[in-house]
Amino acid sequence: MREEPYKQELRSIVGDAFFKDDAESLVTHSYDGTPMLQKLPDGVIYPKNTEQVSQIIKVLGKYGIPLISRGSGTNLCGGTVPVQGGIVMVMHRMNAILDVDMQNLTATVQPGIITKKFIEHIENLGLFYPPDPSSMAISTIGGNIAECSGGLRGLKYGTTKDYVIGLECVLASGEVLRTGGKLTKDVAGYDLTKLLIGSEGTLAVITEATLKLIPPPKYKKTMLAMFKDIYGAARTVSKIIENQIIPATLEFMDNPTIRVVEDFSKLGLPLDVAAILLIEQDGELEMVERDIAKMAEICKEELADRVSVASSQEEALKLLTARRSAFTALARLRPTTILEDATVPRSRIADMVLEINRIAQKHNVQICTFGHAGDGNLHPTATTDARDEEEIHRVEAAFEEIFEAAIRLGGTITGEHGVGMVKAPFLEWKVGSAGIEIMKNIKHAFDPQGLLNPGKIFAKETRRRVVIDHG
Amino acid sequence: MREEPYKQELRSIVGDAFFKDDAESLVTHSYDGTPMLQKLPDGVIYPKNTEQVSQIIKVLGKYGIPLISRGSGTNLCGGTVPVQGGIVMVMHRMNAILDVDMQNLTATVQPGIITKKFIEHIENLGLFYPPDPSSMAISTIGGNIAECSGGLRGLKYGTTKDYVIGLECVLASGEVLRTGGKLTKDVAGYDLTKLLIGSEGTLAVITEATLKLIPPPKYKKTMLAMFKDIYGAARTVSKIIENQIIPATLEFMDNPTIRVVEDFSKLGLPLDVAAILLIEQDGELEMVERDIAKMAEICKEELADRVSVASSQEEALKLLTARRSAFTALARLRPTTILEDATVPRSRIADMVLEINRIAQKHNVQICTFGHAGDGNLHPTATTDARDEEEIHRVEAAFEEIFEAAIRLGGTITGEHGVGMVKAPFLEWKVGSAGIEIMKNIKHAFDPQGLLNPGKIFAKETRRRVVIDHG
User: Fold this and answer.
1) A430: nearest CA partner in chain B
2) What dotted CATH number matches B219-408?
3) Are A431 and B188 inside 8 Å of each other by CB?
4) Shortest CA gap B287–chain A (Å)
5) Nearest CA of chain A to the CA of B23: how many Å?
6) For domain B1-216+434-444, is the CATH number 1.10.10.10?
7) Taking CA atoms, what residue in B is nearest to A192?
8) Which residue spans of chain B are classified as CATH 3.40.462.10?
9) Which positions fall inside the FAD-binding PCMH-type domain (chains A, B) (predicted)?
10) Which of B148, B183, B186 has the CB atom closest to A187's CB atom?
11) A97-212, CATH topology level
12) Which residues of chain B are within 8 Å of residue A417 when distances are taken between CB atoms?
């Protein structure tokens, strides 16, 4: 059988070595970091430069074939599953650091660079790029931009959107668009840079990014506070912010999370406490000392069982690494791990934890909670088994109620993971029907044929509001 | 003659007292802070709440009448001139501070609140809202959001877009849309909040905003450095950033600006220097001391004539106020003052100043330059006379070349003033034809009838590229 003409055209752009449609390539690109979602693409392509991306988009546009651009696929919202088939475009070959500008404190990179590799490169030059998603050892900067990734340092330093100041992208037409630049200020027309960040590959394909760098903090201290009362820990979070302290990190782990993290990392974490707060402050020495002392005081006021300051950078790093491993550690418990990211105003953390526990109990499912408490971004995580249909239904029902609770508390359905397929049925709860309509219009403005990552963000049908049973 | 039906409908929404179409009201709303632009509207309306805004938009949509929403009209891009007639909607009655949330460090306000009044209110509560446009004594928060206003503190703290985390707005359909919330993280769909910021009233009418507040810096020091060589001052700016110091303020004034500011403010500024840098650092005491000392050293390396640290908060405030008065002071020189804001990467400040002076000389026009040097945002300001047509043509030709030079140096046509009418012919130079097309599509996605602030951002025709004469 002769190969379809569009595939021949794609091969002629990138060469045979960089277009694949063998069974193995299709299967390995049929899923991403999200459990229970899979669909085979029709091919996988690896462009080496912007010009090739443009040519590929033009060919796919001509034939009406969907295009799913992706990095390492570490997202947790089904953002890169080729749910309507089509061609998966992997950006890994476009992984150069094109420029680090020490005068303007910017870096310009291609999208396929691994986040951690980029961060290490920058740190070796004595500079600082704060966004640090937990997946950063594997994720790409392009993927971080597509999903507007957060991370542990988001509370004090902001997320990916706060550090991207210029983009090059290829539009659905194949045209190349450049936005922003090495500029901290630019109000020439609508802010397309910010619109593209977090647009999940549905508006354009990002081919280059200019990132803002900042001077690194001079000192850092790390502290652990253990609580017998989970709500004491949650109240501590609110009180710290209320005292006008913005720590570099303010992470929360509940008891089930502590248990698996300890089992995984052997740090000697106590197994008998209800919650741990992992707190970091960085900056000038006197401020770090003052803030750490004040936060320790607040922890004690909220009846922390124990407060301990890491004695060395190594110990601090171990603690942070342990926290970052929470997802991996939880994933060992049972066959399927569903990590969510309901987000609330910081003042409602205690209420949200209470709600999550109540809902988990009601549906008889196991949900551990950890997350970036300082910005109200919790990761309730269900450990379950995808093969047990009945249990999965209970897990889904519980998460529906959790999202409902987040909205009710003034929060949102996703703080940093994105909408993708997983949150699409709930998006209207947050943005309303007027918001959905405007977003669909924007999508159409960029991608009239609907070929860029179709089936994401917008659901065929909005999930009905679940009536919360307060009984 | 009976009044037109749409006017009757508007009166019935707000009451006779709040719809005006007498000659005086029309004239006073026919212009804004921008010189040489004027057009009479057909009426002026003052809504008191979101519901009225929605009703007004529906009526105007039904009759196909343009709507120009505005605050105090301090913009400098012709952003609120009713260039196609229609109804000017003044937001001053909607000026409440609805909520200051000390737990989440947010404030929720109506758009008509005066910026300075809001900042003072927040500071009295011990909190900090950094965006400080020079017009802040008159401008409104709603206007700041529409134009994405910057200010003196933008270098270290960012501009309006970095502090708006939620919006309520009324769409062209009359529907009310809510975006974001009291959330530092929210990735539920496209970032409509950031898209609306800086959209200059062309996408929706902002009726409420939730703003992020931060803890105020503990200490502050202010320093003046005088330079005999203007490029020494410009190089100092680059060197400060290169040394990884991000000062709170890093302002530049050239000699003509110093002269008028001194004449206006009687501070004893030296009149024989080529340029002054006004430098502030804030934060922790030890860091402020260290940074000020290091910056003084850099100034001396670049042959600063004199470096003096303000001896008191009062003196520092006087210096800042003097800098803020530059526009007002320059406006006294000649009948017409045209203040622009070409912006370049910080490392190109010296080149840009050189270009501005060369271009001014070539066209024999008087251009003073001051501005936010730390973020590459310069305000070349022409003092001229609108009645002298020949001179105005020379001024316009000079500014065209200045924008061209900014683009050539990797900059933009506007760093903080917006596009409005003034920059519309140049927008394509920055964003390209693909950018213009996408922006027009976005405009259409929000406002299919084209009634929201028509005639702004998009020009009928792009100004041809000026060929720079390097002779």
Assistant:
1) B188
2) 3.40.462.10
3) yes
4) 7
5) 33
6) no
7) B195
8) 219-408
9) 37-216
10) B148
11) 3.30.465
12) 187
Q: What is the ipTM of this complex?
A: 0.95
Chain position carrying tokens 């009295």: B124
Q: Where in chain A is the domain with CATH 3.30.465.10?
A: 97-212
Residues of B in contact with A127 (CB under 8 A): 244
Mention the CATH class of domain A217-327.
alpha beta
Spacing of C-alpha A120 from chain mean position: 20
- A103 and B182 within 8 Å at the Cβ level: the answer is no
